[in-house]
Amino acid sequence: MTDTAGIEIDYDVPADMRDGVVLRANVYRPKGDGPWPTLLTRTPYGKDDPSQFLASGIDAAHAARTGFMVVIQDTRGRFASEGNWRPFRHEREDGYDTVQWAASLPGSTGRIGMFGGSYCGNTQWMPAIDNPPNLVAIAPLMTWADPFDGLFARGGAVELGLVLPWSIQTGLHQLLRTAGNDLPANAVDNLINEWDCLNQSAYWDLPVSAAEVLRRHGITDLGSLSVLADPAVAEWCTVRDSQRFASVPSLHTGGWYDVFLQGTLDNYIAAHAGGHDASLLVGPWTHERFTDPVGQAMFGLRAARNGVGAHPDGDWSDVQLAWLRTHLGRQPDEPQSRAPVRIFVMGRNEWRDEQSWPPANTVDHAWYLGPDSRLQPTRPTSASKPSRFTYNPADPVPTVGGHTVMWPAYVAGPADQRGIEERNDVLVFTSAPFAEDLEVTGRVRMVLHARSSAPATDWVARLCDVAPDGLSINLCDGILRVTEGANDWRQYEIDLWSTSNVFLRGHRLRVHVTSSSFPRWDRNMNTGQQGDRHHVAAHQEIGRGQANPSHVLLPVVLG
Questions:
Q1: 472 included as an active-site residue
Q2: I need a surface site. Which of 331, 362, 448, 549 has the fewest CB within 10 A?
């Protein structure tokens, strides 16, 4: 036990799981007899790593000084915990067992609240679905609902930009742990070299499903690739359609440029629809950046997640602790006192409370792809030749900003799109400048009438805000993989996820249509055989006339 400034810390406290595997945690307690409400997070990234506090938004020592007991546990097969590392495989059962174990620790009130983000958000949802008796609240930060919508894949395309760096980073510890004294002298150096050259080599390896860089080093992938061979991998971490079974209150935090934005929103919507006490807060953040600059944009000091009291209870960390304190102490039928939804509205750069998500006062407005690269609010009334471009998998459109977690050279978030807008394989449609402000808040969809020369291909659409000086900033985008029949005229709907942005007076709407964003999403080979290295160029046609009116649907806020 370590004594420090009003708290006591026990390291590597063992917890027996139902199958006999021992997991270990650090336990922070206020000095004194207690009992204290107890906060729990379960992480694969190392319970002794101080960056865990930044990622989760809760500093365990600070929380203990304010009257919580805090438990930070290494998940199975990671760092101090026993067992074999398989991402997501045991989080449901281990989470349930750990909640009940933490409730029995000396000094605990027996009322457990869970916190943490990303993977550690999923380690909350998995046990919560089974309702451990002592779990009374969860606060998932930036986590998914459906692993095929942001974690493993998006619109059928592999989230390659995420899976490879994540797997290599976690694989470094896996190498050291599993090989022990038998680890070849150059094994770590070789893996680091793979990381350093990822953008020049591993991202380009074909076929993607072979995961050559991971196979060479014997490390485990996040799941995007192993799920192709074993569909059960997705079941281990799927929250979608199960939120209603988790009867505990939930606080959901997301970012407009987070890789798991839509999952966060979907989890909140489902929990609320299930009749449960749910709250939502969304800021202008990426998965890893929470203060200016976010990408290439400045949202102002009030937009910072921490450090500025932009909310009624202080900054976001204060809000989360206050919410947990209330729910770990209150009676189940005690009403919530604040608006359930709080969002940051970009453009105007201000926080706003809402009674629902999406806001009730929105109406879908269609903006149509018109002639001369125009984006117009009226449906075309005459025939028009299709817009054309050629997509070559050997020269894909590079990923610039967006909802990403990738190799560090790729900066997530809002970014100037003018470079890729100059490419011949990116169609650009732009509205006239607005005479007055237009707010778009909610889920954005692209209805695309399209045909390819190839039997299979991808369609990518993106919404941008164009300033009077020409700066074009991405807001949201999406991809749809067509596996067969792409060479016939068809209507497709592409989910661009959600945003909240005011297009200010003098600004313009802009839509991109293309067929790639690499290396965020793996390249479509245009052959229908993604497991093959062979690829061909595809000649793409986009309809924009009376018979095939491609358009973007924008949730416009009225009044």
A1: no
A2: 331
Instruction: List CB contacts of 414: < 8 A, sequence separation 6 or more.
Output: 257, 294, 295, 296, 297, 401, 473, 474, 475
CB contact set of 557 (below 8 Å; sequence gap of 6+) = 359, 361, 362, 439, 440, 441
Residue 95 is which amino acid?
G
Residue tagged active-site, from 146, 258, 416, 465? 258
Catalytic residue among 56, 81, 118, 317: 118
Query: Model pTM?
Result: 0.95
Closest residue by Cα to residue 339 from 305, 308, 309, 312 = 312
Rg (CA), the chain: 24
Beta-carbon contacts of residue 179 (< 8 Å; ≥ 6 apart): 187
- The CA-atom distances, in angstroms, between 380 and each of 148, 364, 369, 516, 549 are 35, 18, 9, 27, 7
Q: Are 76 and 85 in contact (CB under 8 A)?
A: yes
Q: Which helix (H) or strand (E) is 27 found in, with range?
A: strand 22-30
Q: If pLDDT is split at 50, 70 and 90, which confidence band does 176 have?
A: confident
Contact 91, 42 (CB under 8 A): yes
> What would the two tokens of residue 76 be?
């199975």
Which residues partner with 258 through β-bridges? Answer: none
Backbone dihedral region for residue 469 (phi beyond 0: left; psi -120 to 50: alpha; all else: beta):
alpha
Q: Is the pLDDT of residue 271 over 90?
A: yes
Q: Which contiguous run of DSSP H or E holds residue 255? A: strand 250-257
C-alpha 321/C-alpha 60 separation (Å) is 11
- Asked about 534 being catalytic, the answer comes back as no
Peptide bond before residue 293 is cis, with ω within 30 degrees of 0: yes
Please tell me which residue in 252, 272, 287, 512 is annotated as part of the active site: 287
Task: Give pLDDT, residue 237.
Answer: 96
Q: Please answer whether residues 525 and 327 qualify as being in contact, where contact means their C-beta atoms are separated by less than 8 angstroms.
A: no
Tell me the three state secondary structure of residue 462: strand
**Domains of the chain, each with CATH number or no CATH:** 1-141 (3.40.50.1820), 153-235 (no CATH), 241-357 (3.40.50.1820), 362-557 (2.60.120.260)
pLDDT at 173: 84
Is pLDDT of 18 > 90? yes
Distance in angstroms (rounded) separating the CA atoms of residues 196 and 168: 11
Strand partners, 42: 73
| CA-to-CA separations, 200 to 6, 535, 537, in angstroms, rounded | 51, 19, 21
The whole-angstrom separation of Cα 311 and Cα 136 is 24
Contact criterion met (CB below 8 Å) for 449 and 548: yes
If one counts every other C-beta atom within 10 angstroms of the C-beta of residue 62, the result is: 15
- Quote the CA–CA distance of 81 and 74 in Å, as a whole number: 6
Mean pLDDT of 79-104: 96
Average pLDDT of the residues in 456-484 = 98
Taking the C-alpha atoms of residue 87 and residue 328, their distance in angstroms, rounded to an integer, is 29
